Each structure stands twice: as C-alpha cells, then as structure tokens.
Amino acid sequence: MTIGNRRKIQKVIAADIIPPLVNLLQDEQYEAEVKWEAVCALSNATLRGSKEHIKYLVNHDCIAYFCEHLLCPDSRTQRLCLVGLKNVLKVGEAEKGNGINLYAKMIKEWDGFSKIENLKTSPDTGEMATNILRSYWRRQG
After folding, report:
1. How do residues 14-37 score in pLDDT, each as one tens digit?
2. Burial tier of 120 (Cβ tally within 10 Å: 0-12, 13-18, 19+)
3. Which of 14, 74, 80, 123 is packed most tightly, with the most Cβ within 10 A?
4. Around Cβ 141, how many Cβ atoms within 10 Å?
C-alpha cells in the first residue's frame, strides 16, 4: 500500500487510510501479524514519503505507536519501528526550532529513547539502535 512513490502515499493519505492503520496498532484484539502489517505500511510511508507526509503521520500519533511496538518480541517489527522513527527524526532535524528536534523530544516523552537504548544489545537491532542514538541524541549532549 505504501511501498510506492510519494504520489501513491499521497493517495493513501487522501483516502484517509492512515487513521485506521493507527487504530489497528492500538486495538488489543488484533493479532501480531495484523499489527506487523500496519507497522510495515506506516514505516514504508516514512521511508518513501515527503516531509509533509511524515508530519501528517506524526500528527496521527505514529511516533507513539512506533515507540510502543519497539519492544515487541518480533524483531521484524522492532526494525520497522526503528526505521520509522529514524525517518521521523530526520524530518525533525531538518525542522529544528531553537536547536531542538521536536520529534526527538516526542520520542523521549513516549519512552522511545529508553526502548531504543534497550535494543542496543540485540543482535537483530543493536547496530540500528546505536546509530539512531548517536545521530539524534549523543551529539546533542
């Protein structure tokens, strides 16, 4: 659904499909595979989307759900969440106000920073987690 180009992602946004995807992530009745598919679609949208697309995703609570699913037992989902957060952080970096990446701040507020720290020791996600921490938090002090 969001594997295509920016025009395809815009069509997904215009069709108002993002809110139902986010709802899948917050509803406990859905199985892990359904949630993985939703995370996959949202992560792909951050990977291929424009700054405006990513801001739209942030405004629809994607940061919260990427952070929430960072420590799920499935390393595939963890990696997708890290990719999504990394792409959100890139936009936050480009949009810094007063030297502050507001998206990094939001990730900390959703306990994402500590969850990313926990993933540093994982053989599946450790390198990606470490790179994100170095890129968006360590150099800021």
Report:
1. 999 999 999 888 888 888 888 889
2. middle
3. 80
4. 4
End-to-end CA distance of the chain: 39
What pTM did the predictor assign? 0.92
Our measurement of the distance from residue 86's CA atom to the centroid of its chain's CA atoms, rounded to an integer in Å, reads 7
Q: How many CB atoms lie within 10 A of CB 126?
A: 12
- Mapped onto helix, strand or coil, the DSSP state of residue 111 is coil
127, two tokens? 């390198």
Give the Å distances, CA to CA, from 95 to 83, 87, 98, 129: 19, 13, 10, 22
